[in-house]
């Protein structure tokens, strides 16, 4: 049986995302999905402060916390442990306790499925695959095997050097052993285990493998189907960055989406008295504005668009955040958006 090892490499400050994906051996989490979780956690924290601090949303503590911005993702894209935990729990029902947590000290590390390690702003994963442990640090050029004998010493050394080590006792998704499972990850990040173990300098990734065209589709004349977006047609997917693939997917979505007739919603001056709505703007900044409860939700779109160079925006609210475009003609009171945090991104 052939095993493959999935190893995403570092891009920007997205090591938390790469650590999660390397742990589950799939391209399961994106910067967008993790940012949405961070926003949900921020909103929960703000709601707790609003309900438990004297003065509610007008209290000094609440306004200070609001002004500080997100406590779960910074401007560079570094996510908190709570975001990583929430992502694993919601998608895979997997918990991520600290290895020093009470009750885990007696569990032998070589029986655990994997680890997430963190120091300062860097995260990386260690994962068991085919009864071997692999260091899947996204800053490494390729995965590195860790023997069972060395694992305990490595974990202890990490802790002694200031790392926090979080563990998955069991229940991680199974490793990749067949062609179909490889579609869960990006082609350029798959490594054939036997080549890595032999120490080959040209170890085969899926991008070099005959399987790489699986799922790309062919015309009846045997030629490949054209890529989405004229700018991407000459570049194979295996050579694209994550941002380029995300852009390609967005272009495909836009091509397939039905075109709606635009409706204008006039934006009036901010009232002196009204309900407050909090915003995380598409550019990451935060804002708070008052609206009348009788204002329609469409005016919220007009407000965010006016702060975003009049670009089209997608707005989400609630927990978990849901698109509110279908509520544009409802009043803010009817849509129950008073006091909510609304997350915006460019459409």
TrEMBL record:
It is found in: Nucleus. It is an enzyme of class 3 (hydrolase). The keyword Nucleotidyltransferase does not apply. Keywords: Hydrolase, Nucleus, Protease, Thiol protease, Transcription, Transcription regulation, Ubl conjugation pathway. It catalyses: Thiol-dependent hydrolysis of ester, thioester, amide, peptide and isopeptide bonds formed by the C-terminal Gly of ubiquitin (a 76-residue protein attached to proteins as an intracellular targeting signal). Residues 2-183 form the Josephin domain. Pfam families: Josephin (PF02099), UBX (PF00789). Residues 207-224 have a biased composition (Basic and acidic residues). Its EC number is 3.4.19.12. Residues 207-241 are annotated as: Disordered. SMART domains: Josephin. One of its GO terms (cellular component) is nucleus. GO terms for molecular function: cysteine-type deubiquitinase activity. One of its GO terms (biological process) is proteolysis. Residues 270-342 form the UBX domain. PANTHER family: ATAXIN-3-RELATED (PTHR14159). This is ubiquitinyl hydrolase 1. It comes from Skeletonema marinoi. The lineage of its organism: Eukaryota, Sar, Stramenopiles, Ochrophyta, Bacillariophyta.
